[in-house]
Amino acid sequence: MPDxxxxxxxxxxxxxxxxxxxxxxxxTRLRAEDPVHWCEPEGYRPFWAITRHADVKAISSQPExxxxxxxxxxxxxAQEQTMLETFPDAADQxxxxxxxxxxxxxxxxxxxxxxxxxxxxxxxxxxxxxxVGEITTLLLxxxxxxxxxxxxxTEIASWHPxxxxxxxxxxASKDEGLILRLTNELFGADDPELGRxxxxxxxxxxxNFFFNLVEEKRAQPGEDLASVLANGEVDGKPLPHxxxxxxxxxxxxxxxxxxxxxxxxxxxxxLDHPDQLAMLQADPTLAKSAADEIVRWASPVIHxxxxxxxxxxxxxxxxxAGDNLCLFYPSANRDELVFEDPFxxxxxxDPNPHLGFGVGEHFCLGAALARMELRVFLEQFVAxxxxxxxxxxxxxxxxxxxxxxxHLPIRWTLRPS
Length: 417
Ligand code: HEM
Prior knowledge:
alpha+beta, binds protoporphyrin IX containing FE
């Protein structure tokens, strides 16, 4: 194995992400010199770092060889231990008392995915587009004017996708702030500003909220996804308690934190590349390809872990049954073997076979929704924009699972609608 002087903590430790941003330099070296690299970061259980596009794709496309459980993501041994002590029944799920789509394998995975699948079909999303347009207009109106200064993350990006996913899920608007806080505490668990001290109490709080919602939707079913899940059946029986509540947790959190980060990092990329912003203003039909380039560029989901079911091989390396493989999506999305000039931000990139939404069995259920939300936002934004500039540096979130910026101070001049 090549002896690379790469500190594996740069790949996994949330505080390193806060200090340095995404470790693109290390990933670039790994792709070139050891794309399937054994890592033993201090304080973490070891894993293979998978950094090339082809390997991320091959692993994700073979769920029978590479399971999505029990290890979902990178946590310190101490954190895993606390979870195991708090939730001893969840030992076979890595101590996470959640049974979500992302931690299920076929054939069970398909059965559960089919429950929510119809809600995210492009034909249904067409009917949601007007609502996303209204949400966008409302948020932009609040910040219209000359030389308006604000934090793009906390004032716009956090609310834009949140509102839509709450409506899809049937969460009342009065509870949106709560969902935002709980999601920040989940994905920002290691960030001193976003996380909470008693992290073991977070999931019970979420479960409690969604349990009440389930009761409501059982008593008075509506057209929303919450009603479908609350009254849904698997193999002729209602969904088991943990599976049901986990579904809510996944959709409610994955449905906006990811898109929020894409929107934020994408806005920063446009600020940093005025030629690309000018191109989008001149031709707003580019908003569609810009949305995908933003997801490639931002890659808000940094990693997911797979566990080998059998002895096998990836990229010429012998993988033992039980080994963990960490798929680094931002690295796959900068792979020189796949993308021409991968470190250039090009809103008209075509083709753009990025893996920002994953690939294979677990391909993002909300990809079409996220693409539409980003496109609609960009269309309205460039139609009204006169001027924009940074008003300080962005602040990185201390997160190595789903990440990006927690603050992005900007100043813009935006015309009224
Ligand atoms: C830019 C925004 C988004 C990004 C970058 C993103 C990324 C991803 C990735 C990488 C996966 C694959 C997980 C794996 O392979 O294990 C995934 C799965 C998933 N995403 Fe997204 N996502 C986004 C938006 C959304 C939205 C808006 C929803 C709305 C519900 C959503 C719901 C899900 C669900 C339910 C899964 C699990 C699918 C499965 O396991 O079958 N995501 N997402």
